[in-house]
Amino acid sequence: MTPTGALSVPSQRHEGKATFAVGDAFYRPQSAIARDLAVLAAAVYRQRHGRLRVLDAMTGCGVRPLRYGLEAEAEFVWANEGNPDLSAVLGQNLATLPAHIYRITHQDANQVFFTCYQQRDFYDLVDIDNFGGPSPYTANGLWATRLGGLLYLTSTDGRATSGHDPERSLRTYGAWARSHPAAHEQGLRLLIGHAAQIAAARGLGIEPVFALSTGQVHRVMVRLVPKPTLTDATYGFIAYCHHCGQFQTVDWRHLGRVSCRHGLGEPSDAPVLSGPLWLGPLHDEAMLTAMQILAISWNWCSQAKLLGMMAQEIDLPPYYYPLGEIGRRGQMDIPNRDQLITALQGQGYRAAVPSMDWQGVKTDATFGDCVAIAKVI
Ligand SMILES: C[S@@+](CC[C@H](N)C(=O)[O-])C[C@H]1O[C@@H](n2cnc3c(N)ncnc32)[C@H](O)[C@@H]1O
Ligand SMILES: [Zn+2]
């Protein structure tokens, strides 16, 4: 009761078309972009397949099932939340949806995935918004995903993915992650590689739909496909030379012969190796285009802009150069990003803003050439 005797109403939040209370649930307003992109992908999936059944395995206050229902027009959403203390707030929030289109449970996510598999109850979209690394859930989440369906994975384990705890990265991703300037992209590639390897071990494959890094949090939406996508070309290593700042990709056959000539033909130092991780495309161009068209029609300008940036980086190398690193190594002021991109393109290179670090450039120019061009703009 309030001092005046009126019943207190928990404060309501708004996101997309959803109005909800948070109560004691974990909810980060800053993660709205991750939910926006997932809603767009789900809506495109529904347009294409004429169906959308969603399993949100770690729902918190239920903002995602609410949005999948209201915005992506899911015909069914299963909202699972391991903490039964959130039952009241979840029930109250989802009550805006028609009763027959949702289900609420309070089980361990892995229990839910096993039940789905046992009952042959497969979902078009399985959303797993875990804390920390994804590895306890990825393999089991695949059991609940229908072939051709989508799996949305999360990693909040920035220390491991950025190379500051390689032993933890080894335990989580089966990969030795080293520290280098393209850390945010490395997090996405570790997460996709992990999913591709787990799917391949089962004779299946995954294709990235989109990959989103907001610094410490990495998210990837992947499509489950019937054939493995893990190959020598899509799953390998990234080498980084601490001497000259150059990256290179390394496949399994050349692991013993990695060297860097520092762009000068000098005798080589051994660069550090990170991986294995995903070296294939981070996003599906056709899906990004369809999501962008939808975002524009919904007047979601910042989301449409981000999707456009993602589309620009699809064919570029699996790393980027932060502007600060160009300035530091070139012993000059931090270059203007857009002027540098224009200058690189003027020299015949491909170049774009990395979606995962807007203060950087993604280009097929070597680091040395990029610094040289930055010096004369
Ligand atoms: C990051 S929060 C979810 C936030 C929510 N998806 C959102 O977008 O606002 C993770 C939630 O998963 C729940 N959780 C953690 N481990 C779980 C498990 N093994 N099974 C089911 N739920 C779990 C936590 O109680 C927490 O509410
Ligand atoms: Zn070098």
Written description of the protein model:
There is one protein chain. By secondary structure, the protein is α/β, with parallel strands linked by helices. The protein has a domain at 12-235 and 279-312: Rossmann fold. Helix content is 36%, strand content 21%. It has 13 helices and 15 strands. It has helices spanning 32-49, 63-70, 87-94, 109-118, 135-143, 158-161, 166-173, 183-201, 285-297, 301-312, 323-330, 337-346, 367-375, and strands at 12-15, 18-21, 53-56, 76-80, 102-105, 123-127, 145-155, 205-213, 218-225, 235-240, 247-250, 272-278, 321-322, 351-352, 360-363. The chain has a seven-stranded mixed β-sheet, sandwiched between helices. Strands 11-10-12 form a three-stranded antiparallel β-sheet. α1 (32-49) packs across α9 and α11 (323-330) packs across α13. The protein is globular. The relative contact order is 0.10. Residues 1-6 have low confidence and may be disordered. The chain binds S-adenosylmethionine and zinc ion. Zinc ion (ZN) binds next to loops.
